[in-house]
Design brief:
339 residues, alpha/beta, Rossmann fold, 2 domains, two-stranded parallel ribbon, 16% strand
Length: 339
């Protein structure tokens, strides 16, 4: 039996461009196709990743993501051990009656839109996927790194990062990494510690929704572990120290100051409560505290690259980029991420 990896190198790829991307149409779960530029982006991305040994490719089954994943998979020389996997949990957010319409912005809350997938269940299905991805059973090889490619959608990737991984401090963003929108065929690279658990007595997977209140990695609305709250508190204090030494928006500084004062006041009032928070650590499905530390704290990963498109620069030098459509598409905005 093969040993489990100690860490995962996760490459998150947004699908290639579609006509709807160019025209500012909300796609959601409409099953749209890649356009000419999108197919070229997928091919260039596949060629770029061909020199990387990939262990798994997992994609949303919607055509624009599935076809991007198939192209990446093809450039792995069709390794017999590399299967192309599809997972409904990587689908784009459903936008109900907004799908198929041009996005014009607006003041109404999208959560009130007929047929829209509300943010909480949306982030929960992504959290479900993530817990299944990072949790492994068996003996660990400390030197083994598994490389996984995920192919998904703009709003889905954004929710995974900004509703699940970063707010709970399960993933650190170094100062050298600048968050941005997730562009077509961009690559976001993460280095993640594996959560190892003993052989399960529960037949349900680690990411099963019935287990969400005790997930190792939780969307922010489910409440993060106390240890992660303390980590966030310490990071806020560091941010405030840096902000006072640099030019940062005054409003943002005041908000952080208020949050820090409130938390410090609670700690002074209830020191035992603070100690209890320290004991509330990230736990594996078997109930044991996760000890795996790849250099950023127990069970904590890091963003290596965010929405990187350097590999696509050659497209802009090609004849295709000189056409009207492609020059318009080169700056298209991901409206699904904005809704």
């Amino acid at each position: 039996m093969s040993l489990c990896p100690n860490k995962l190198r996760v490459l998150i790829v947004r699908h290639g461009e579609t006509r709807e991307n160019v025209e500012g149409i909300i796609q959601g779960q409409l099953d749209t196709d890649l356009n000419v530029r999108g197919r070229l982006q997928a091919d260039v991305t596949g060629r770029f990743l061909s020199s990387t040994r990939i262990d798994r490719v997992i994609a949303s089954p919607l055509k624009r993501a599935a076809d991007t994943a198939r192209t990446i998979h093809k450039h792995q020389n069709c390794s017999p051990t590399l299967k192309l996997e599809f997972d409904d949990r990587l689908k784009e957010r459903a936008f109900g009656v907004l799908e198929g319409h041009v996005y014009h912005g607006g003041s109404s809350k999208p959560e009130d839109t007929e047929g829209i997938e509300r943010m909480e269940p949306f982030s929960e299905r992504l959290g479900s996927f993530w817990n299944d991805l990072v949790t492994r059973t068996g003996e660990v090889n400390d030197d083994k790194i598994e490389t996984v490619v995920l192919v998904s959608h703009g709003a889905a990737i954004s929710a995974l990062m900004n509703q699940v991984l970063i707010p709970g401090r399960y993933l650190l963003v170094p100062p050298s990494v600048q968050p941005s929108r997730f562009w077509n065929c961009s690559i976001t690279e993460l280095l993640i510690p594996v959560i190892n658990t003993s052989h399960p007595t529960n037949t349900k997977s680690p990411g099963h929704l019935s287990r969400k209140t005790t997930w190792s990695i939780r969307p922010i609305h489910l409440g993060v572990q106390g240890s992660q709250f303390l980590l966030d508190h310490d990071l806020q204090k560091k941010f405030l120290a840096m902000a006072n030494a640099n030019s940062v928006a005054e409003t943002a500084i005041k908000q952080v100051e208020t949050r820090i004062r409130r938390t410090e006041s609670e700690f002074e009032r209830d020191p035992k409560g603070k100690e209890q928070l320290k004991q509330d650590t990230i736990k594996a499905p078997d109930g044991k505290s996760v000890e795996n530390d790849i250099g950023y704290g127990k069970a904590i990963g890091v963003v290596v690259k965010w929405s990187n498109v350097d590999h696509l620069k050659q497209i802009d030098k090609s004849a295709l980029s000189s056409t009207v459509n492609s020059s318009a598409s080169s700056s298209n905005t991901n409206v699904d991420e904005l809704v």
